[in-house]
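Writing this down once: the sequence line spells out the residues, with the fold written below as integer tokens. I am pasting one below:
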Amino acid sequence: MPSTKPFQLFVACIFICSSLSAVAQNQADVWLTRADRSVLFAKQAAGLSFSTAKNNQPTIVVNEKETFQSIDGFGYALTGGSAQHIVKMSAPARAALLKELFSTDGNNIGVSYIRLSIGTSDLNEKVFSYNDLPEGETDLTQAKFDLGPDKTDVIPVMKEILAINPKLKIMGSPWSPPLWMKTTYDARGGMLKPEYYEVYAKYLVRYVQEMQKQGIPIDAITVQNEPLHPGNNPSLLMVAPDQALFIKKFLGPAFAKNKLKTKIIIYDHNADRPDYPITILDDPEAKKYIDGSAFHLYGGKIDALSDVHNVHPDKNIYFSEQMVVEQPNSESINIVNPVRRLIIGATRNWSKNVLEWNLAADPENKPYTDRGGCSMCQGAITIDKDNYSRNLAYYAIAHASKFVRPGSLRIATNDLAELPNVAFKTPEGKHVLIVANSGKNNTEFNISLNGKTLVATLDKGSVATYIW
């Protein structure tokens, strides 16, 4: 008679595995940041357990049956200045930094989305484009197009990042066309000359193609960074009718002709002008080429993103930039502010991503351009040779990026005034809930899902991510 031991072991394994799974489903991990800096994005030793007990505490009800947008990722702008600091680090120091930022292992934060400047931004050491010519000269065929300075910093750093996370999403944004295409031969302000609309479309096509040759796939481009802010260095004024015309007659057809899969995203400016993207999307000829609209929050209210979504629900929403600053060596960290306004606020208003400005700077916030560059733009990381420290923007993004992986779906929760929150379901079936205590008191509250409840406590000014 054959032995029954293998079968018994098989049954025992099923029982044990099922029990472990049940325990895992009834336990929530907690990653916490406290306002007093006593805890900075750290996993808590004791998890929380779900039960069916009742109490009278305020309750965040998670409803996984009501779903919203899918998530593309969370991250930062990798400016030329950021890359300049990173590439100068020794190979071991650079590898350690990039692993911490872009890997999800251990305590690494798993950044999954990066924004690059197409040419220079105001956080570069100097202004340049990929086709700089003396005043009076032109290059209508883009024969002299060259990625230039990016070859020495942005591209090498991006290659190292993509080796860690090959699925990283990348958005490109131009601050200015080459000067010879503008109404004024100046990096600041001016407009794109109508006779160069077709040439500029070729320029942007070349950018996508040349970056692809470098092994850097550009998932999306915005047409113009802050098109209503011509005072930056560099910058360009591009009003909504001009952007619509450029897309429908030149950029859209050029992308289609060259079979580019790169998405075209409009606006890329503050939430105070939702009329800008709406008027462009109201033009069906332009709309057919457009994936969605991108926003910043230096002006306006975050719910303006929903205003655009409600008028054009078939087009996506992105959050492409916000500067997050804290005082160096501060005894407290205002983690609630960026998490409430951006991580929670943008995603609750349909955004597929959240990007902060910017990844890295030195202790003096350098480099930045003269005549309008940002001297107060602090990096998520401050780099001093091979040493680096983590700032507010690092911790704010970490609370989402590590756990809300690309492909996650936002799911419904009720909105409590002093406990702003947002929830997601990951592709692996895990639930992620991010909560900020914006009230004046430490608060005990419930998290409820499918009839089960766990009881959590969050100090005032603190943020926690719950995963189960």
Summary: The two ends are 45 Å apart (CA to CA). The longest strand covers residues 59-70.
